[in-house]
Amino acid sequence: MTQYLVTGGSGFLGINLIRYLLARGHQVRSLDIMPFDYPESSQVEAVVGDIRDQSVVEKCLAGIEIVVHTAAALPLYKKEDIFSTDIDGTKNVLDSAWQNKVDRFIQVSSTAVYGIPDHHPLCRIVFVLPQASPVLANCSA
Q1: How far is CA 82 from CA 44, 85, 90, 119, in A?
Q2: Exposure string (b/e) for 53-70, b if CB count within 10 Å is 16 or more?
Q3: Domain limits for position 102
Q4: CA 31, CA 93: separation in Å to the nearest integer?
């Protein structure tokens, strides 16, 4: 039985991944700033914490074999929170995964990287204007 850490486990991607992993008999730990209020809560070791807090991340990685990183700040968050979560928080998770010698690190993304869309559905090929995403707005070509 493989031990997984799912960051952002209380979010849309996280809970669906956790359900998938549980259905296949894996052990799951969730790390999210939001409580894990799902019917599966008795089957998941849920940690309420922030990926920007290195000590919390470090504790969550004890005994973990595979990290699936789905935590991210949404486009509706303040620009500073997006950067500190998506960049600094991701670095914390990567650093701790490396130090704890996890077997595999999986980074998951979503359409949130495109900002708040002006149409649906989004196609696989979408031209993104820098002002559509706070992260892209500060990147130079």
Answers
A1: 27, 5, 11, 22
A2: ebebbeebbeebbbbbbb
A3: 3-137
A4: 11
Identify the bridge partners of residue 45 per DSSP, sorted by sequence position: 29
**Residue 91 sits in a domain of what CATH number?**
3.40.50.720
**CA distance to 28, 118, 129, per residue, from 138 (Å):** 36, 20, 12
User: Tokens for 6?
Assistant: 């799912």
Is residue 58 scored above 70 in pLDDT? Answer: yes
pLDDT at 75: 80
Query: Sheet containing 27-32: which strands, arranged edge to edge?
Result: 44-48, 27-32, 3-7, 66-69, 104-107
Q: β-strand 27-32 against 44-48: which pairing, if any?
A: parallel
- pLDDT, one tens digit per residue, over 13-42 is 999 999 999 999 999 999 999 999 999 999
Q: What is the pTM of this model?
A: 0.82
Mean pLDDT computed over 88-103:
97
Query: What's the total number of domains in the chain?
Result: 1
CA distances from 121 to 3, 30, 125, 131 (A): 35, 30, 11, 20
